[in-house]
């Protein structure tokens, strides 16, 4: 039976540290503030938003929500981004993606001020992740994977890591973060030939395809640590990951559940980035 590497204790440890830093900022008259920008009402976004609101409240971060209908035009969204850029009381911005298909997502992301890009969506932040410079902020979900591995004492150096997924939101940045910790890396995707064989060779398997069942029982092997980053809504309306959880629980060494795994830590990483941005802005 696999160990469940839950996100709650990881998030609790981070929250305790961040609350102290937020209190120190408050003592100097600075209220760390996050802007949440959401277009439409995708269930996955609403779930993450609820978690982010709860985490920010626990830490001491104020939140301002900018909510637009799915039919909103791109110029309307860019106006909101511009407003956030100009407001010195807002220290970070969370923009939910993917945006509706009628919008140019890349153009919207690049419109955000790099100083307020606390979720690694601008080209400058991503370049920093790929170069390993340490500047900017990596995408929160990608960083959350490493926070979980650190909390549970897993040493990545020299380990064989396989990432299933190649998006700029998770797959590519988490790959670079793993490589930065000296893991030996393979990046796969849903079109990889014999995906199951590639996955079985992994000691650390990160499932980030965003597709229910992308990592089947055939992909799993004893001794693996599996980080399930996927989050989808099944036909019954339940939140589920990319991994066949029942098969994993019976096979691997450890797995993060969905919900209650990586997502719980992601909001804490987001909060840390907002605190850091507030600290930088108040120097």
Helix fraction?
40-55%
Q: Runs with pLDDT <50, length 5+?
A: none
**How many domains make up the 3D coordinates?**
2
CATH H-tier superfamily of the largest domain: NAD(P)-binding Rossmann-like Domain
SSE order, as H and E?
Answer: EHEHEHEHHHEHEHEEEEHEH
Nearest-integer average pLDDT: 94
Could you give a short account of the major beta sheet? 6 strands, parallel
Strand arrangement in the largest pleated sheet: 1-11-8-7-5-6
Q: Based on the structure given, which CATH architecture of the largest domain is correct?
A: 3-Layer(aba) Sandwich
Number of DSSP E strands: 11
| CATH fold-level topology of the largest domain | Rossmann fold
Give the CA-based shape: globular
Cα distance, first to last residue? 50 Å
CATH class of the largest domain: Alpha Beta
Class based on secondary structure composition and strand pairing = alpha/beta
What is the C-alpha radius of gyration, as a whole number of Å? 19 Å
Percentage beta strand: 15-25%
């Amino acid at each position: 039976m696999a160990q469940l590497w839950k996100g709650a204790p990881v998030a609790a440890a981070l929250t305790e540290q961040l609350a102290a830093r937020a209190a120190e900022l408050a003592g100097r008259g600075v209220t760390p503030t996050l802007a949440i920008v959401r277009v439409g009402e995708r269930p996955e976004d609403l779930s993450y938003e609820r978690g982010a609101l709860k985490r920010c409240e626990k830490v001491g971060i104020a939140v301002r929500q900018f909510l637009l209908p799915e039919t909103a035009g791109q110029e309307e969204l860019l106006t909101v981004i511009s407003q956030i850029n100009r407001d010195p009381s807002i220290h970070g911005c969370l923009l939910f993606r993917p945006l509706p298909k009628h919008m140019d997502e890349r153009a919207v992301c690049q419109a955000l001020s790099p100083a307020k890009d606390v979720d690694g969506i601008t080209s400058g932040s991503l370049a920093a992740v790929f170069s390993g410079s340490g500047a900017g902020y990596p995408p929160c979900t990608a960083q959350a994977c490493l926070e979980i591995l650190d909390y549970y004492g897993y040493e990545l150096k020299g380990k064989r890591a396989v990432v299933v997924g190649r998006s700029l939101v998770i797959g590519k940045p988490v790959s670079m973060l793993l490589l930065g910790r000296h893991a030996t890396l393979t990046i796969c995707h849903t079109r990889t030939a014999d995906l199951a064989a590639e996955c079985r060779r992994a000691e650390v398997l990160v499932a980030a395809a965003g597709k229910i069942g992308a990592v089947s029982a055939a992909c799993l092997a004893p001794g693996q640590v599996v980080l399930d980053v996927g989050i989808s809504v099944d036909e019954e309306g339940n939140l589920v990951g990319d991994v066949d959880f029942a098969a994993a629980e019976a096979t691997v060494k450890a797995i993060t559940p969905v919900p209650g795994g990586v997502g719980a830590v992601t909001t804490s990483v987001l909060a840390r980035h907002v605190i850091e941005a507030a600290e930088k802005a108040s120097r």
